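Researcher: Last one for today. Full complex below.
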Amino acid sequence: MDFNSFLTSLGTSFVLFLVLMFLFTWLSRRPGNHVLYYPNRILRGMDPYEGLRASRNPFAWIREALVSTEADVIRMSGVDSAVYFVFLTTVLGILVLSGLVLLPVLLPVAATARGVMKANDTTSEGSFNDLDKLSMGHVEQRSARLWAFVIATYWVSFVTYCLLWKAYKHVSDLRAAALMSPDVKNEQFAVVVRDIPPAPEGQTIKEQVDSYFKAIYPDTFYRSMVVTDNKQVNKIYEELEGYRKKLTRAEAIYAESKAAGNPEGTRPTTKTGFLGLIGKKVDAIEYYDEKIKELIPKLVAEQRVTLKDRQQSAAIIFFNNRVTAAAASQSLHDTMVDTWTVSDAPEPHQLLWANLPKNFYTRRIRQYVIYFIVFLTIFFYMIPIGFISALTTLDNLKKLLPFLKPVVDQATIKTVLEAYLPQLALIIFLALLPKFLLFLSKAEGIASESHAQRAASGKYFYFSVLNVFIGVTIGNTLFTALKRIEKDPNSLVPLLAESLPGSATFFLTFVALKFFVGYGLELSRIVPLIIFHLKKKYLCKTEAEVKEAWAPGDLGYATRIPADMLILTIVICYSVIAPLIIPFGIIYYGLGWIVLRNQVLKVYVPSYESYGRIWPHIYLRIMASLILYQATMLGYFSAKEFIYTPVLIPLIVLSFIFVLVCRNKFYRFFQCTALEVASRELKETPNMQVVFRSFIPPSLSSEKADEDQFEDALSHVV
Amino acid sequence: MDFNSFLTSLGTSFVLFLVLMFLFTWLSRRPGNHVLYYPNRILRGMDPYEGLRASRNPFAWIREALVSTEADVIRMSGVDSAVYFVFLTTVLGILVLSGLVLLPVLLPVAATARGVMKANDTTSEGSFNDLDKLSMGHVEQRSARLWAFVIATYWVSFVTYCLLWKAYKHVSDLRAAALMSPDVKNEQFAVVVRDIPPAPEGQTIKEQVDSYFKAIYPDTFYRSMVVTDNKQVNKIYEELEGYRKKLTRAEAIYAESKAAGNPEGTRPTTKTGFLGLIGKKVDAIEYYDEKIKELIPKLVAEQRVTLKDRQQSAAIIFFNNRVTAAAASQSLHDTMVDTWTVSDAPEPHQLLWANLPKNFYTRRIRQYVIYFIVFLTIFFYMIPIGFISALTTLDNLKKLLPFLKPVVDQATIKTVLEAYLPQLALIIFLALLPKFLLFLSKAEGIASESHAQRAASGKYFYFSVLNVFIGVTIGNTLFTALKRIEKDPNSLVPLLAESLPGSATFFLTFVALKFFVGYGLELSRIVPLIIFHLKKKYLCKTEAEVKEAWAPGDLGYATRIPADMLILTIVICYSVIAPLIIPFGIIYYGLGWIVLRNQVLKVYVPSYESYGRIWPHIYLRIMASLILYQATMLGYFSAKEFIYTPVLIPLIVLSFIFVLVCRNKFYRFFQCTALEVASRELKETPNMQVVFRSFIPPSLSSEKADEDQFEDALSHVV
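Model: Here's the assembly. Have a good evening.
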């Protein structure tokens, strides 16, 4: 890619971004779209225009995002979102501080070097360009100028250490503040116990659990809720809910037909067979009504059977104070670690019930099996990506698909295509994976949704770095370098180091595309908007259906964080080699901060709260990027035959020490709740009845607040 | 060494053992020696002859050892001793079961092989011997007979897994039974808290600690005892105790002189200067009396100052029930892991007070520094051992010290010297190290004596295995193999595998010497007996001094276990290569079991109780030996050019899985107390006052039970 196509790519991206931003300003003012641009506010019963009414400035949202505080974010979107912004701020800080030193120092040093670029050091076919002159590749081998780059490597590392340390402390405080809040949070009074051994003869699991915990916590044990196998009851419940929805829909259609001039109305009909498409034609309202009446007693009966006979080897234990629950979740209860495993309870709605009864060793084995599958996935995908990045050059395309030639040879189309083709392929490719990884993470037997999301996020990160960053970099010179790797697999780092400068412009474009188009689409919400209006017009009949159509979802950490991380890895690895990438990184994170601040305050609704548990994952992966960067630099300096290269080794050692110290100091508080935090006073005495009921899954909760029927598996009043 | 000198060595060792055993039978019957042969019984106020009076059989002690139960051991010597016997029994089981299969199968297979021994495969100068014919070295390369040895390797491993699994379960039960005992054990009501942050302005550390824990445990917190810097007060206390001892001694001398005919008696005198050797001559009793009177108020004043002004950043917290203490010791208290670090309290008398205030990071750094020192020690000692084992062959000695030639050339002397020389050098050499390792372990900042002993034991094990086993084996062919290691350090395992058969007879002799002479000396207690009688005759004047002279000490795990482990490592590594070593191992562990059963029941007094915490250390080191054995076998089969050698690789993988599973299932209960165990009912309500006072160090406890003066640092009545 030459300098021209790079500028074109940048320009078109920017124009696209501007268009999308003005589209957003225009669309978000139309009241019919409020549910799409302010759903978080609407769901919290707030005025969508709050604070905005005064100004009609199209950039008002930017001002609003900038003046919003961390407390606003926590109030509107929880601690996890606030932690995500700490991440953005920290990376932004790292990049700005790095840029302030690296740009004014390294660019002149590189530009004034004699220059040693070889033909194969650039992505395009042998044509040097102005960007390459500003990179470390332009400095001759063994030059004393390389000292400036060594110092820069140290500077970036130290800036990262300092800011990460501050951020870890800050997040720790955020988590503590949220956990010590005087509001009653149901999950703080419960623990999950798994691997309950088979109950002795003549005892139900519930009785066993109750007597076990009452003996240990005579004063603080409240009740237990044994986990049941809900497959059957869930099926009936879903069937019932389905008919209820259909009934509401049929009634809405009937009401509509009445309103549409026909005072009698047309009673909607349905067929009793498969999907309402075959079978006898009946009156829909009557039919659904009848079905519902039929299913309710069936559900109640099934609930009874489930609670009595389908008790599993897991339970939720409730305590009447937070300190006991916090201490219990951290303590060994049985002499064998693989029985009566206790851990802290997540929020009720994010408990993965089906995973709870999974056995200790089953969980371990599943984990290893899934790590192996992920490993295969990562390395299996490497081959197609290598091919794609090699195939999607225009010249190759023309060779493979000759009929494209007349189109492609036009100058403008050629430039645009040349700029976008490889990156687009990459981005589409990456969209396929997250669901699969989340599915795998849940299959590990993890107890909570948030934990599964974190696990998926981690897997996706390793996938991105290995496949996109390393894969593309090496794949770029893959056909020349393939034999070398085969001969000696250890040559990955030096090979990566040598290949890096060649891919610099590719990644510059990639980052630019990501931030302009990505954040443009994010802000304007064009796709959800179109889908919503289509659904509303042609599908939705009831209030509930409309509401479902605009439900905004959450921030999607499982894909968002790995994507941000990939950018960070790219930018940090190139920061010294091609410092020009730093401003792009700054724009990515700065723009991301503003756009997402808007989205978090107004659009996304968090689907769970893990009190910042995502942070250690983020932190560790930032450090992984930093260490990859340091190793790459070590390899690159060697490739430059710089004899003082070993001065970089202490840096890598330092990184590992830093990881160790942070882990020692901070990590355990993110695994469990510190007792000091849990011991803070509550605003009011918790209503244990409410706490308890919040954990009953919807399919098992009865319509009436009649409790007796839950006596079997759920409860035992002390 | 040829077969003759081996038999001589064995024979003389056996005779020595018989002599020592009869010496024991004879000496232990003389009432004057009872304090040496039955101290544990005497200190527990039991009749030394209990159960023995009926029989006058000289082997009665063997019968008594054999019929004693595990419960007897626990009653007389605690859980730790019982765990030590589980270790002996388990290893004995492993060796017996291995021997039952390996001896009848492998010996004929090896003996009937064609034979391929080369000159350098034996320790002696090219002369083959009968022992070597019975070893795997005698089987030709690539022979199908090697399959028998492969199966044997698997058999030994599986026997080890099974017995270790059973043993781990059994020890876990022993620990649980001891911890759930209905007797009040003071340490179960306390936790140690370290890394207390600096107290806020206007608060003492004690006030800070009290308010912190009272907030978290409003109902169960009893009192706190802040750790003080006791250097000054200890000095005065020791001075005072010294004068008290001297006073008793002077009074005893005076009484003796009166009894010896002189009705007036001679009042002993002393000098006031250095060590009572120079200075003014004074009446001793008056002088000491005066000194004591002088020191008592000084001590009281110093106690006050210490408790008030020398409070350190650590404390002991007391709870009024066991469950809270157990849960507290496992829970994170502060959001920062490096402050308010809580761990369970060891027995009061084994707390290492001076280590408690050491800072979190100081402890970590000390640990790493000490690991490095130990690493250096292990590898620094390797050189001298290599030299010793190369120098102390008779031929070398004759060359180096020609004047010895006439003595050494006599046939009997030559045989004896040849048998003992290398082994004796080794045994003396090993006696130097344990104290140093214990000192290092304490310097790590460990909180309890038992933990320090465990740490020292672990270090000593690695030292023994690396230096004695590997060092001697390779050192044996060191001068031929030195260049090879230099070229390729990875060649250690194949080199070791090749060198093993050559050292087989050396180690056979080593094991035999260890069990016959070692256990003979252990049983007969000749050395302590002589020292005791000398001390009693010439030094001891008072009752207390006599008692001190016969104090038996404890089992000495820090050196005993590594020594046993070394034998196990040797025997297990040779079990398949030279199966003849197995009977020697069986005798070592069988004899050890009987002799030590006697010693534990009658002689040694445990100096602490860690409730079996030593077991995971023992277990892990048995597994380390097993893995070393498997790796060695892998190397040895390769050296035999056996093409199916890789069938041994799954075995090593299996060992690692076994370690992992055991760790997951059992280990945590050895780190902390399971709540279920701690929740068992007590025989009586604990007297918290007594529990509290048991932790006051002697130098700080006052004569009168007056408490008010402890208010400052120790106590705060709730």
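Chain A has a mean pLDDT of 83. The first strand of chain A starts at residue 190 and ends at 194.
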